[in-house]
User: Fold this.
Amino acid sequence: MLVTGGNRGIGLAIARAFADAGDRVAVTHRAEPVDGFLSVRCDVTSGEQVEAAFSAVEAELGPVEILVSNAGVTADGLLLSMKEEAWSRVIDANLTGAYRVARRATSKMIRARRGRIIFISSVVALTGSPGQTNYAASKAGLIGFARSLAREIGGRGVTVNVVTPGFVTTDMTAALSEARQAEIVEQIPLRRMANPEEVAGAVTWLASDAASYITGAVIPVDGGLGMGH
Assistant:
């Protein structure tokens, strides 16, 4: 199985959860490889790098039967001051990057008549977030993409689902001030942030036999933050 952006945070927790369950796991990274996994350098904004990454994984581990599309970036800013480059960069990495890896994985899953594709979106795809029009649009796009793909290939035994994490204790949230973190937690019904392993639990379940009749679903792991959306 392959986790894009599996070198840190949520992606790394997902990779570890699959490895703990006995799966052979590959991760993509853009900087440093990850000990304990087949680590393949790949920027998902490059079709050539995506092709090379899949070829390397297939040569070492065999066909990718489970794909977790997690790689993504942010470039926050209010719309009136957001440059088109910042908009395009986020859409390309988060949405078009997901298209690139899913398209590469899908053909072999269809031939095998089995497979799991899981996209990591965000609660902001459903609720919106000021200063994140580009990020929210890219993550909302994953839902429409996943549900359309689920309808296309469901008859071939391939499921396609989306996980929408809320605020998770990662390096990104740790960089926020204590006051901002407290403000965020106050909005969450469970009054805490998630840990990456809780997101990984939802992903491994969607990839399991127990979820074989679930496709086109959006599974929130957000402590109730996006409730009603």
